[in-house]
Design goal:
single chain, about 425 residues, mainly alpha, Leucine-rich Repeat Variant, 3 domains, 25 helices, about 0% strand
Length: about 425
């Protein structure tokens, strides 16, 4: 089989940054492109049994000696798997089942291992890993074949390419869910690689979506992974992604989901709040309630309210709102209580919005804590007033004894301490 000159265009289509896998791998047009790239007859598409046989044949026979053939075959395999979504029970469609039974995962990992420095092979391989790992039948083999390590290696090797990084993080987002991979998520240096990629490509929405999703899935339900993500700077990276892409529904939802998972102890909530997490989550919530309208002449369309994003933001705010006065004050300054009530009123029938909005409101507006805080403020205010008067009286007295001078200095020192 001879590869034709349309291969570069095919690979560019594969790595186009977009919001969902079906956007990255548009099935109808790209399957035809894949057929041309693999020199298939016009009536044979990779979405057919005959086309799949050709793809698997290229992967098993030529991928080890021809990187361009490997990249084209992996791109076609990714599109085949993405065009066939899992069934309601997670079962794989017939074509995906045939690909897995034909050794697609084994050939895929072999090709990625053979060309670790080839961006086209790494990106296409991660795209295929993502598309295949959605199916329950592929999950156990993917864990056993070291797919997580290959995706991490590709992420580090090709960190300069936002398109390849996005596809690697997309694969990690699904691979990190698998029980077999949970124990290796931190060992494979996935947290550090993801955080570095998110910092390097902070302006790329696709990297933000997939990076936050991968950190979330890797940390969820695993204390060691959660600690590794926090230690790698994951809180700052997630807050930065939320701040930069708060108007992007998928990025905001996944970033808030990651904050909710990570901010559960060991001072993580306080660290996230210091990084601006409360303000970022509040801004994202406001952006997806439809409260603000685009300025005239901006060319932007009004964003429809999103209950999914609202629920994720409320959940993140509930996790951030620990009993720290400065966090509660930041939440009040960002109008968080008003935004949470607006979300609950806007989506009265959504249980997740109601649940998390109520939890966040209970933490932020805890009446007992508020009374204690107000009482402490009042005591400090009275003490400061008394000390000020004492200092003034000492300075106005005509006596110049050493005792008066010491009293004045002590009063001023105590006043400064109270003010701080």
């Amino acid at each position: 089989m001879r590869l034709v000159s349309c291969l570069p265009a095919l690979l560019l289509l594969c790595f186009a940054a977009a919001g969902s896998p079906s956007d990255v791998l548009a099935p109808a047009q790209s399957l035809a492109d894949a057929a041309r790239a693999l020199a298939l007859p016009a009536h044979v598409l990779p979405g057919s049994a005959e086309g799949l046989e050709v793809i698997l044949g290229v992967l098993s026979s030529r991928a080890a000696v021809d990187s361009r053939a490997a990249a084209a075959a992996l791109s076609a395999l990714a599109r085949v798997a993405d065009a066939e979504p899992p069934g309601p029970d997670g079962s794989a469609p017939a074509l995906v089942r045939a690909a897995l039974e034909g050794g697609a995962l084994e050939s895929l990992t072999r090709a990625m291992g053979a060309y670790p420095g080839n961006a086209a092979v790494s990106g296409a391989g991660c795209a295929a890993l993502y598309a295949l790992s959605r199916h329950a039948l592929a999950q156990a083999p993917a864990g056993q074949l070291g797919a997580l390590g290959l995706a991490c290696e590709a992420l580090v090797t090709h960190g300069g390419s936002a398109a390849v990084v996005g596809m690697c993080a997309h694969a990690l987002m699904h691979l990190a869910v698998l029980p077999a991979n949970k124990a290796h998520f931190a060992d494979a240096q996935a947290p550090r690689a993801l955080v570095a990629a998110m910092r390097r490509h902070g302006g790329d929405a696709f990297v933000a979506r997939t990076g936050c999703g991968a950190l979330n899935n890797g940390a969820a339900g695993h204390a060691d992974n959660k600690a590794a993500v926090v230690a790698a700077g994951g809180l700052d990276a997630v807050v930065g992604a939320l701040r930069a892409h708060r108007r992007d529904a998928a990025a905001a939802e996944r970033a808030c989901g990651a904050l909710a998972v990570l901010c559960t102890g060991d001072g993580a909530a306080q660290r996230a709040a210091q990084a601006g997490g409360v303000e970022a989550a509040a801004a994202a919530l406001e952006a997806h309630l439809g409260i603000k309208k685009p300025r005239k002449g901006s060319g932007r369309q009004p964003r429809p309210p999103s209950p999914r994003v609202a629920a994720a933001c409320a959940r993140a705010l509930a996790a951030l709102a620990w009993n720290e006065h400065h966090i509660k004050r930041a939440a009040r300054d960002a109008l968080v209580p008003e935004l949470l009530r607006a979300a609950a009123e806007l989506f009265p029938g959504d249980q997740q919005v109601s649940k998390w909005a109520q939890k966040a409101l209970e933490k932020i507006t805890d009446p007992v804590v508020e009374q204690m805080f107000e009482g402490a403020c009042a005591i400090h205010s009275v003490g400061a007033t008394l000390l000020t008067r004492c200092a003034q009286a000492c300075s106005e007295t005509s006596a110049t004894s050493d005792r008066d001078v010491h009293l004045e200095r002590d009063a001023l020192r105590e006043l400064e301490r109270v003010r701080r």
